[in-house]
Amino acid sequence: MWRGLRAALGWLSRLGGGGAPPAAMEPMERAVVRCVPSEPKLSLQLVLPDGSARYMQRDQAEPLGRALARIATNAAKGRAKAGKKSKKPRAEDGEAGEAELPEVRLFSRDGRAVSEEVPNAAAWQDGAVLQVGAARYRVERNPPALTELRLPRSLLAGFPVCPKVSAEFAAPQHCLFRWYRERLPQGGGEGPVWEEEREPEGGERVFTPSNALVGLRLKLRCTPGDGARRFGPPREVESSGPVEAGPGVCTFDARHLYTRKVCGRSSVRAVSYNILADTYAQTEFSRTVLYPYCAPYALEVDYRQNLLKKELAGYNADLICLQEVDKSVFTDSLAPALDAFGLEGLFKIKEKQHEGLATFYRRDKFSLLSQHDIAFSEALLSEALHAELRDKLGQYPVVRDKVLQRSSVLQVSVLQSETDPSRKLCVANTHLYWHPKGGNIRLIQIAIALSHIEHVACDLYPNIPVVFCGDFNSTPSSGTYGFINTGGIAEDHEDWASNGEEERCNMPLSHPFKLQSACGEPAYTNYVGGFYGCLDYIFIDKNALEVEQVIPLPSHEEVTTHQALPSVSHPSDHIALICDLKWK
């Protein structure tokens, strides 16, 4: 720990305070102060004149004098220990070997001594000077620092490598990145030699290895920055394995030809995609029954994430709504990767599950005004908004209990245009109950969803357009699709008895929106060995939005190249829907 602290402080000393050139100021050691208003204590790290590294925590409200006295005591102890180790008593230490307390003072940036009565939080300012005897230290308050730097375990040639970067007092977009390739030693040398990449993208956060790097490992050096010309100590990370050859042509390559650029300011490119949760792909049932035609390595999460990140990045979307997103995949893979491409991510986990929904929006097009996520079961039980539906379901306790047992959720985000604040969007995302005989359950879930969306888009933000994405597990002939599309469903619709007469629950439902499927009714959006059909949709408010273009789905030949989905060239059993929308 102390070795790392000394290295970091030494690096800060060489760099100079505030990012300025070292020659522009008097050379000093560094005293690093971390002070966060929400925490009761601040920390101070420095290397004392005797060479010992010190880490102190002090109450932020404590008078400065007490902290300075502790530094003086530590400096005296360090000096005494150094004297004992040298076995050469110094006359100034006295016969008892007691080290005299050095003078310790703190000076503000303008050179004035800081009163010892000032609280620590106000005293330790960036650029202040700490004097410990004859030694002087420049205070670095909250300098940029990396808390995590990690590379994906699987690296494929031609596929973007997006490191996970977590930082304090810094932002990834202000960090400096340097990529290195492994150069294997010649003549039996020890260990690899690293050579900096000189390709145009070599200095960016996202790096795409070429075929020439197959068989070689990568190294990343990241220097944290805060955008105000301050930089912290760099960290390095090496890949755990070498770059491997990619799968060749993927199902989404041709689609990327339509989405090479981000669409214009007056348009919105939306994507809806069930990405197949790892928690479902990695079961024995999935490998042997659901997807026996898929190579086992192509079901591995790291392999599929390589494909998925390239696919999503290449769509240059403004809105991305994903279903079946593992919590760890969102945190460790998708959020950092799409952040590097300018997208901010929001996550809603299902109750008692390891997967959920994710919504991403382009930061330079939208800002987030509010979130209104719900779990269907909880909303039905407790919200006054659904009291009428709750009363109707009271007549059908078996169906009601089934609805309450489901973990399905709804993600609702209100976004505001960065260029035209008068333009707002209500973006909804969901994944309805999956069972083929669960049509009645899906009708109840979508009724709850549309009532909640109505509350947000009509009551809280009157008359804002709705974009409703998701895996609705409903074909165009289903009651759920008809209900969304037409605004109502009759009490005698056959889907009310989708699981037999004993679970029939007749009730009329309606909603006020004029919604249409922006991508129409494709032959299928889900294609597996035993089933294919259209289950996914992007519904839009046709009074306020219109479709500019729909990105064509992969051809049937592309989908079935490896029999069905997922495959070595497609990461999910679903196909992404993509369309460009514009305000009317």
TrEMBL record:
Top-rank lineage group of the source organism: Eukaryota
Signal sequence interval, chain numbering: 1-18
GO MF entry, a single one: metal ion binding
Region (Disordered): 75-99
Pfam families: Exo_endo_phos (PF03372), PDE12-like_N (PF21171)
Listed cofactors: Mg(2+)
A GO-annotated cellular component: mitochondrial matrix
All copies of domain Endonuclease/exonuclease/phosphatase, residue ranges: 272-574
Broad class of the protein's primary localization: mitochondrion
GO BP terms, alphabetized: mRNA processing; nuclear-transcribed mRNA catabolic process, deadenylation-dependent decay
Domain 2',5'-phosphodiesterase 12-like N-terminal: 143-244
Bias (Basic residues): 78-88
Keyword annotations: Exonuclease, Hydrolase, Magnesium, Metal-binding, Mitochondrion, mRNA processing, Nuclease, Phosphoprotein, Signal, Transit peptide
Record InterPro entries: CCR4/nocturin_mRNA_transcr, Endo/exonu/phosph_ase_sf, Endo/exonuclease/phosphatase, PDE12-like_N
The family this protein is said to belong to: Belongs to the CCR4/nocturin family.
Protein name: 2',5'-phosphodiesterase 12
